[in-house]
Design brief:
With 204 residues, this protein is mainly α. The chain is 71% helix and 0% strand. It has 10 helices and no strands.
Length: 204
């Protein structure tokens, strides 16, 4: 995450974690300062308010929801030789820094019904950009003749993958039992990989 300085970067990174795990309303400036290990007043050297931190997070996500995706050079080797689980994983976790981006997705999901900005960012960056990326990767796999799928089924399968990714990213907002949701996420990954028909691996 490219920011002005290390302290500001730390404030934003810890805020993303806290907001995604506890909910924006349940996190105070003091909570953020304690996580960063600075005095609460020091936060205001970088941000006017907690709301301005949230706005910064939204802007960061908008700026990076495309350029933080895996590039063809990064995902093509997996398309050529990977297993079904490997390929579903790059569809599900298609970010270079998936932890930060998934945590922001949780924040957006939790706030999209009460915050018009969150709703807009969620639609454009999670849903629309997510579908674009997944469809692109599947189409590349079909072009390589690695993925055996009719072109008319790409959108339907991409929708299933996107739904599973949104579920995985946001389940912790509903229930903080991470182990339970991690098990469900694994089961969904296996289910999707079972629906993906692959031809033989290609030369690396």
């Amino acid at each position: 995450m490219q920011l002005l300085n290390k302290t500001k970067q730390s404030i934003v990174s810890h805020s993303i974690t806290l907001f995604s795990e506890k909910g924006y309303e349940n996190v105070s400036i003091r909570n953020i300062a304690d996580a960063v290990k600075i005095k609460p007043a020091s936060i205001y050297n970088h941000f006017e308010s907690k709301e301005s931190i949230l706005d910064h997070i939204y802007n960061y996500y908008v700026q990076n929801c495309f350029n933080e995706r895996l590039t063809p050079a990064e995902y093509m080797p997996i398309l050529r030789t990977g297993s079904a689980v490997d390929i579903i994983s790059i569809l599900n976790y298609g970010f270079k820094d998936p932890i930060i981006m998934f945590n922001v997705t949780r924040i957006l999901w939790a706030r999209k019904y009460i915050d018009p900005v969150a709703k807009k960012v969620y639609k454009e960056c999670v849903i629309d950009a997510g579908m674009t990326y997944i469809v692109e990767v599947i189409a590349k796999g079909i072009e390589l003749r690695r993925i055996d799928m009719k072109p008319e089924n790409i959108q339907t399968f991409a929708s299933l993958v996107l739904s599973s990714r949104v579920f995985a990213a946001n389940a912790i907002v509903i229930d903080p039992d991470r182990d339970k949701w991690r098990h469900s996420e694994t089961a969904m990954l296996e289910l999707l990989s079972g629906l993906l028909t692959l031809n033989a691996p290609l030369p690396a």
